[in-house]
What we know:
Order of helices and strands: HHEHHHHEEHEEEE
Mean pLDDT: 75
Helix content: 40-55%
Amino acid sequence: MDWKTLEALLSGVNKYSTVFGRIWLSVVFVFRVMVFVVAAERVWIDDQKDFDCNTRQPGCANACYDHFFPVSHTRLWALQLIFITCPSFMVVLHVAYREERERKYRITHGENARLYDNTGQKHGGLWWTYLLSLFFKTAIEVAFLYLLHLIYNNFDLPRRVMCDLWPCPNQVDCYNSRPTEKRVFTYFMVGASAVCIVLNVCEIFYLIAIRVLRISHRGGLHASPKKRCSEPDWNGVLKKTTCSVRSAFYTKEKPSPEPQFLRPFNPRSKWSYVVLNSAPI
């Protein structure tokens, strides 16, 4: 698989990403893939051939080069770029799975039936898949940075190394080709990898924060009070009461009822009545 195929596949992931994911993809292609393909790969070309030792003993230079540079920078970076892009394919596969389920659902229930509002919307299982892909990418970035630091102490490339391995006859001096240029590219690629780690962490916190806010908003809508206390009343008079179990709300004080004539006061006189439930004068 070449770099163009990898770029085409990752471009499909871009439409499901957040703003941090789009920035991460731009950093990967502009500051890592492009620099690796255009410049860095040419700096390390024929690196072992240019590794020179002050001895003519056969095999000495090869043994010393293998000891001090066990893994080439370019091959390690190529492996890193492949590994950090693999978790993004989890999102693509999950979306493809949703689209297939949507297609089968429409065949069974009709063309207008929909199983998902949007197959690419990050909710439910797709949200967890996207979050896990971010954790995997961050872990891979950190692992490769630690591996590079472990192989090359402090990401440094010395100009001269002293080697006494067999089959060297004694301690010999070996010289690395273009050490300053290689050191600059190493620091640049390490810095770009650190930026990608920061973007992944920011996107993780962003997704979790959005999810928490959405759940809190739904909980606030479902937990409505028993009575709407802000509705207009007959006379607009408000009185403090406990109309909700959540907090102290306000309800309205009802106006005095109208006088009602119920029964005669004197049974002997049919024209005498008493007023019940009348308001005080």
